[in-house]
Amino acid sequence: MTAIRPAIRPRNPCFSSGPCTKRPGWTPAALDDAFLGRSHRSAPGKAKLAEVIARSRDLLGLPADYLLGIVPASDTGAVEMALWSLLGARGADMLIWESFGKIWATDAAKQLKLDDLRTIEADYGRLPDLSQVDFDRDVVFTWNGTTSGVRVPDGDWIAGSRAGLTICDATSAVFAMDLPWDKLDVVTWSWQKALGGEAAHGMLALSPRAVERLESYRPPWPLPKVFRLTTDGKLNRGVFEGTPINTPSMLCVEDAIDSLRWAEEVGGVPALVARSEANLAAVAGWVGACDWVEFLAEAPESRSCTSICLKIVDPWFLGLEIDEQHATVKRLVALIAEAGAGYDLGSHRDAPPGLRVWGGATVAREDLEALLPWFDWAFAEVREAPVAATG
């Protein structure tokens, strides 16, 4: 393999899977109208927070009877709030095919210590057997595996009539994939993923069935203040009307409003999905012409269009020890970063050694297409001059 250094770099070399790149054309001037130095509980502050909720609802097409609120601690906080507040009323099925699903299952087992808990697992690159899911139980799953690049292809496997709740971590899917809202009782995401917003704030959507559970069930464990969605057995509706549990960053709120306005301007969720799918198609075309890399997701219909994960299949690389593989990938992505052609391109620390590229709607296809030849160049470089493992 001959190392030919590309002549063209992406105009925007940011391909991180979180925090993700800002929307095209973003500058700090987008934050000029931020509501700073005032209480978020004042009327203008609450109006800004309510605007995020309203614009998000409208863009996503949430059912009219679903609630949507802003909660602390990014998507992680939103998921944990749901798990601690809702689980335990009946048995739970935890679906695992990447690291975040495993974290949620570990918390259910070791922190909440649920008595009736099942895990349905698959290795990186595959979905578990979804036919094993019992919807008489609560079901917890990620729609898109951020660290594996594997997504559920649709919601056909989810029972429309079910006794349990479906709790979906959708942070790297929402605004980039079509979600069957009527089949999802709890949906969580953050501003830092598909729309490139700033971090530390989560979004929590609840169906009427989820609200009924909150008001009829009291978990046997203590709930920290930031997890409390009810007061005296009644839902704290302020969370869903612009009065969050704790103090939000109004600078981040302004950035979220800016990203939502951009999403509206480009054509809403259908346009965002199309942009993400076009990015996946660009990578798929390159992978099809490569002999050293393949998608980590084995089935084409389950390949993510946001967190696009790739595995290196070159025989030389596969012959390396695992620590040497990690060192090789580290050097490969460092070469690209040093050239200013792309940043944050290594696989997640819990995933097999490989590459990960964010393909969400804020990434321009032409930037992604400009990045791909740099992968070929960098792999040729490390292939010709192997690096030693660093431990």
CATH superfamily of the largest domain: Type I PLP-dependent aspartate aminotransferase-like (Major domain)
Spatial extent as radius of gyration = 21 Å
Query: What value does the average pLDDT take?
Result: 97
Highest-level CATH class of the largest domain: Alpha Beta
Major sheet summary line: 7 strands, mixed
Trace the largest sheet across and list its strands: 1-9-8-7-4-2-3
Q: How many beta strands in the DSSP annotation?
A: 14
Tell me the distance between the termini.
Answer: 27 Å
The SSE order reads HEHEHEEEEEEEHEEHHEEHHEH
Strand content: 5-15%
In CATH, the architecture of the largest domain is: 3-Layer(aba) Sandwich
- CATH T-level topology of the largest domain: Aspartate Aminotransferase, domain 2
Describe the secondary structure blueprint for this structure.
Blueprint: H1 43-60, E1 67-72, H2 74-86, E2 92-96, H3 99-111, E3 117-121, E4 138-142, E5 144-145, E6 150-151, E7 166-169, E8 186-190, E9 201-206, H4 208-216, E10 230-231, E11 234-235, H5 250-266, H6 268-289, E12 293-295, E13 307-312, H7 315-318, H8 322-338, E14 354-358, H9 365-384
Parallel strand pairs: 2-3, 2-4, 4-7, 7-8
Antiparallel strand pairs: 1-9, 5-6, 8-9, 10-11, 12-13, 13-14
Helix pairs in contact: 1-5, 5-6, 6-9, 8-9
Give an account of the 3D structure:
The protein has helices at residues 43-60, 74-86, 99-111, 208-216, 250-266, 268-289, 315-318, 322-338, 365-384, and strands at 67-72, 92-96, 117-121, 138-142, 144-145, 150-151, 166-169, 186-190, 201-206, 230-231, 234-235, 293-295, 307-312, 354-358. It is α/β, with parallel strands linked by helices and 391 residues long. Helix content is 34%, strand content 15%. It folds into two domains: 36-264, Aspartate Aminotransferase, domain 2; 268-384, Aspartate Aminotransferase, domain 1 (Alpha-Beta Complex). Helix 5 packs across helix 6 (268-289), helix 6 (268-289) packs parallel to helix 9 and helix 8 (322-338) crosses helix 9 (365-384). The strands form four sheets. Strands 1-9-8-7-4-2-3 form a seven-stranded mixed β-sheet, with helices on both faces. The protein is globular, with a radius of gyration of 21 Å.
